[in-house]
Amino acid sequence: LSQEGFIHARPWHGTFVAEYPPHLYHFGLVIETAIPHNQWWEQTRFCHALEQEAAIFSRQGTRTIKTFFIDPRKQISTDQAERLEEHVRARRLAGLIIVNPYSPVSHDLIRSQLLPCVIFSNTDDIKGVTRIRLDPRRFIDRALDAMKARGRRRIALIASATTSDKTLEYMSSQAAVRGLETSPAWQQGAFVEQNRWV
Question: How far is the C-alpha of 96 from the C-alpha of 66, rounded, in Å?
Fold first, then answer.
């Protein structure tokens, strides 16, 4: 209990319950990526930014966020997945923040409802789970404004291979509104894990 932060001993005074026990003050950031954890940040800047903010947040106060990397392609538990499951079973976490919950590990954690979960996902709502959905239109608007401000006139788009037709149509229409030229031939879908195809 002492090693896990639930209690602390003071010589000649006794053993006391920790002021900030892990089950109330420690959170898990679960990042699902098929890229090795020492390389993935170069290709997924959003997740890298989340991990950096989690580290800053952890240094600033009594609450901490520990990052776990899970490979969604693997059906068997990896080292990180096993450590995450151990933390959950031992009640060392107050809640989970899960980015792109596709793996069996994440699905099991969400369905078990052992901990409160917040997920970053564009999938349908999951009952009892708070979902944060990134707005691709806002990103497109800001990107096009930045391109126009730099004097660019012809715009291409490299997006996830699963980007919807509506998003692509929105990008084209908003480029036209700003007097920018684009074409379906300049829109490329790519998989983050296999970007060599771009």
Answer: 10
